[in-house]
Amino acid sequence: MHSVIRDPLSLDEYQFRMTTFLRTLDIGKKRHLCISSENLAGLIPGRSGKESYAGCPALMVATKDALREVFGPDRSITFYLSTRDPQSWLRSSYWQNLRASDLKMDFDTYADTFKDAADFGPILAETQAALGDTPLVTVPMEETLELEFGPATPLIDLFGLPAQTRNALSAPEMKNLSPDAATIAQILALNRSGLDTDTRDARKKALLADR
């Protein structure tokens, strides 16, 4: 978990595990590979004591090095990072952390604590500098919501699919949306309740299942 530990050993372990995974793939000479995971940029701030995406540049370089090692130095690589405006990201990340951890902050406290993490400009610049001449494409999610395939559209554009293949794709359904304010308040109350972890998580799960 390099984004939390931030030491050379954890980065080496990440690169080793990524290289090991890539060696299990058989994509041939004509197929492309898409690896999509928000955790490639590191754990979301607010989780496990993380305050920002400061580990992102090193993780992207380690991913690039693993790809080069397995597929060769001449293989074309493009990195794509979707961003959000600060307020939207803060609300979304608050809900993700509230749902999946024992976060006890109210939103205003959380937003003040992690306001710097919501400014993606500096970390994106650091990531591009670390990647050198390897392209880093970034698109604000807000600009993608009305596109053909929603937030997935810029990523699909990078594939350069034939028209027939692209036309056969279906727009994905929007999932994992933040709930209403009342539900958020109930989850916060459970996190602050002092219940043991298993009981608390079971009640959170039951509450969200009724949404």
Given helix and strand content, the structural type is mainly alpha
Q: Which bin fits the share of residues in helices?
A: 40-55%
Question: What spatial form do the alpha-carbon principal axes imply?
Answer: globular
Straight-line N-to-C gap: 32 Å
Provide the spatial order of strands within the biggest beta sheet. 1-2
Mean pLDDT score = 91
Spatial extent as radius of gyration? 19 Å
Main β sheet profile: 2 strands, parallel
Descriptive notes:
By secondary structure, this protein is mainly alpha-helical. The protein folds into two domains: 175 residues, no CATH class; 33 residues, no CATH class. 50% of the residues lie in helices and 5% in strands. It contains ten helices and two strands; from the N terminus they run H-H-H-E-H-H-H-E-H-H-H-H. A two-stranded parallel sheet has the order 1-2. Helix 2 runs parallel beside helix 3. It is globular.
